[in-house]
Design brief:
Four copies of one chain form a homotetramer. Chain A has 336 residues and is of the alpha/beta class. In chain A, 35% of the residues lie in helices and 20% in strands. In chain A, the strands form three sheets. The first copy, chain A, has an eight-stranded mixed beta sheet, sandwiched between helices.
């Protein structure tokens, strides 16, 4: 279905935040009661990059980190996973890396996005985007968070234009984070403009509603998907929380994806694990149905762990988990 | 050629800056030597709106002005010309209206854009854009200046999306003003994204080069035009200063437009007069060649006057001037 | 009374805004009805500098202007009046000079401060303040407007510290302009801190109330004056609009100053003329009573003119006007 | 010596940052190698408040924290130590609490001030300062960090004015943190203006040099102290790193203070412990010499602990440590 270029140096370049999570070493705990915290690489596209690399994809990254011990930790973590580091920049300005504190209060995961609106990742500049780097990859994933303000927003649109020029598969992972945006219309406008470039759009029902809010009201999944099929999109994934997710192909196929059995200790990290497994599988030439199975099992493994990035697994582990999940649950994905 | 909706309340809505020029009452003079200054409505899309209205188009406007005597003057000036005022907002913030001082030094026009980067026009918010107002018009003109920063930039993209949704003819008038932009890549990115929506793009060769700079290098007019014909564009006008301009139609027709005979007292205002006469003529259903004749004669009338807005004429005057210009100059537009 | 150093190169250095007023050539008029405008040097401390120079004081200035034709006009205007230009800097940033449009509506003067909060004058940096320049003057006048935001605020406090170190007579001219301040407490705090350095404080009753607002409530003139006499102040002038002004000396003398007969065409410019004549007279060693006479007559001449700066006169003209005013009005200043 | 008011509800109100430190549970470690981190209340004036309270002073605080779990932790920590919470505000804006990561690299303590320049503490507004709260205390401590930007800077000067009005003992603890300041002149200006109000000034030799830099060059301790004795100061403490510190009284007495024996695991926290013990002792009416002994022993206890705030002790513990330190070291303070 997808036209994905072959013979390139990299399989995928996620774009956006590479940052640090400070989580209780043992989850679930509140910030107040926890006395031992761990440090973890975080940021939705960073987790996706780690997930892709562990599964075996030749993975790059475009983002900006600080020139301090926290930035060094991120850089070294990526290095250990074999991620190509040529698209990672260091902020010259005196800004912090984005730090997120996670806690669980009464069963609810509470993310404290610890930063002002200006963190190193939001200072990625369009001048730093190298056309050759984009042209060296088969695909690119834009995280919606990177669209929240300029110059990072500008850099993303430069990447999207260059990705289009060089024929990359373009994935838009909406990844909405409320505190970094100014207004609902702004969200709707820039999500919509990024989504126009995308062959694959992944988001929750709420995220698609947000994307449409300035232009279209009260659509159902089918309407949403069909509208995007008039643009460049060929596959739309719409998540419905605990009820699983739906996938729509331009060719008419529809899939209902159940959530794999899981003992969750927090609600975060599942989305990134889902995206990384799904994109890896697509790039491997697997059937869409199988890609979706891989994605949902990957998500279930991630939410059972204390951190997002440390929880991401290699291909044999994921495939084994998929077999086991099907044994316990039956078919995870229904096509109709 | 163009699919322009009929049966709407307005013919055209220019979008962007509505501001004030302080010019010497008698041009040419330097600021230092001038002792008597006049006040004039200015701002490229504002001049275009005035031009359209005087020629007989039912004209609206979307922009933001200050809530003081300078804003009142702009508002009343538009009212006198019969421009629909429902899309004009007042800034609640304590910001100035954009004021431009014009002088001529040694034959060169010097514009002093008198403002910080944040003026009332740049504070137009996407929340203020009303879908019904967009839907009530046959066409919309986006001025590139309004793209220079958020929230005005965001409002423009909302307008472009809504204009596309409701089938308006979309004109993008590049109108580059250097001091309000941050970087060349930023210009290139947002010009490109706006131009993707446009059926007609009007700019100088330098402006098209700027638009391409992050993505394409050293194109000639023919290459530029053909690339945009792969998008939504159907007509591209590229200006070459004193050597006139070139127009390219998607259907293959090409036109060379000479500058009509003129005694210029300044170099500004010609572009707005050109755009207003051209768009008016297109909306009237005239042949492209005739539209281009009207445009170039309108420009020549404008640069012969002390102000931009006061110089704009009605249809009989423009048509008479066109007849006279052809008598003096011969054919103004050559098709080939 | 005052300890004023002798044998210095300059008599006085006013500090703060040097800018441009755009006024109707003939006052009174509204902006809407006026078709011929003039350009004038403006800014309260700039007017005071011009007034001082015309009366014969060796006058310097510390301030920042733009590097364009408007800045050049200010610079050349000062040069023509023989003002020392070594303390005048040019903004490197892309900011406008402060421009003020004046109009008269129904007898009320309406100042439109045409600028964002950041104009060239507010970008004066403490690093630009030269200790030797301060040390070369007998006195300094701080205009309260220059305290409204950093870095100009910081530069003023550096000047005040250095003026104290080198024994200059320090005059604080409150000159409140509402739109450039953020909060009443901020005004009160920084006015108070500047006033602590001053030997002479000049303000309206409203301005003294504003200065006190975070710390003291409902004082009368006598209480206000006595409180400042516990600091460095030796003379306090409190203006009461149309009812004239009061002067309080630390030694116990009090003066009531009437307004000299005048045909005012606007309400602005009087304060600057007042300050310049008063400070000139103090520096000349005149009796306080005579200083106050000179000041009130100077103010009456200024409000009768279309501009603030062009209206300022030389010493023989001012002395002649004082004689004439006394003939018409009787004693202008009563001591008690 | 000092005139300290009696009969007030509180002994002391420190002013400034109340924040969080994320330190390795076991010091010394680098960020990279550490896998278990602890959370601690931090911020120099916050540590001083905790130290004062533990020693038995009736302690208040003025500062601003976030309205999230991190802010709650600070609030509850203070509450447990019996600190009066009426001067603690919550930021309404979407800003982070200041978070500091501490690590030790090759024996050097590396503080990563994890924040943009705008953190909750810097948003304390002058409008929030209550005159009655200031008037209810015997003394106030201004931390220099709170002067780094408006509106916190403005709030500090309001506090200083009110403290002066109500006769509080005013202590200025310089506490220089480089990354939050814009320029050296700015530091020098606002340190100087705050120091003018102070009866006691505590800083390192480098901090006093920084304070003087815009106005005075190359002073020795004696010159510095004497210059401040011309203002309100009565006692000046100048620290010389590993060589201990010097104290100067206006009455002519001088003290050399040695560093008490210590096994330091980091270099931070000593200053706050020093200030809290010194101010507590002064407020208790102890001899200056004894106050200085208490201070230096308190500092040595603090640098031997993993955190700053958890290390602060009660009075019996401190007095016992003083006895022990004198046994090991001999006299800690020499008067001459």
């Amino acid at each position: 279905m997808f036209q994905i270029p072959e013979g390139r140096k990299l399989d995928c370049i996620p774009v956006g935040r590479l940052a640090i999570d400070i989580n209780p070493l043992v989850m679930p705990q509140t910030f107040a009661e926890c006395t031992e915290f761990g440090k973890y690489v975080g940021g939705s596209p960073a987790n996706t990059a780690v997930g892709l690399a562990r599964l075996g994809a030749r993975t790059g990254f475009i983002g900006k980190i600080t020139d301090d011990s926290l930035g060094d930790f991120c850089y070294d973590y990526f290095k250990k996973d074999g991620i190509d580091l040529n698209g990672i920049f260091r902020a010259e300005e005196n800004v912090p890396l984005a730090v997120t504190f996670t806690e669980v209060i009464d069963g609810q995961t509470n993310l404290m996005l610890y930063r002002d609106r200006i963190t190193a990742d939001m200072l990625l500049k369009p001048e730093e985007i190298d056309e050759d780097y984009i042209a060296s990859s088969r695909s690119v994933i834009i995280s919606g968070t990177a669209l929240a303000s300029s110059p990072s927003r500008d850099a993303c649109f430069k990447i999207l234009e260059l990705a289009r020029k060089h024929g990359l598969l373009i994935i838009f992972d909406v990844d909405y984070r409320a505190p970094i945006w100014q207004s609902t219309d702004e969200i709707s406008i820039y999500y919509t403009m990024a989504a126009r470039y995308a062959h694959i759009i992944i988001g929750s029902r709420e995220e698609f509603d947000l994307m449409d809010s300035a232009f279209y009201k009260e659509e159902d999944d089918e309407q949403t998907a069909n509208r995007w099929f008039n643009e460049k999109a060929e596959l739309i994934i719409i998540k419905h929380g605990k009820e699983g997710s739906m996938a729509y192909e331009k060719n008419g196929k529809r899939y209902q994806i159940d959530i794999a059995p899981v003992n969750a200790v927090k609600s975060t990290g599942g989305g990134d694990a889902y995206s990384s497994a799904f994109v890896f599988s697509i790039l491997s030439g697997r059937e869409v149905k199988n890609c979706l199975e891989m994605a949902t099992v990957s998500a279930s493994l991630a939410v059972a762990c204390n951190s997002c990035s440390d929880a991401l697994v290699d291909l044999p582990t994921l495939e084994k988990a998929l077999v086991k999940a099907k044994e316990e649950h039956g078919e995870l994905v229904k096509e109709f």
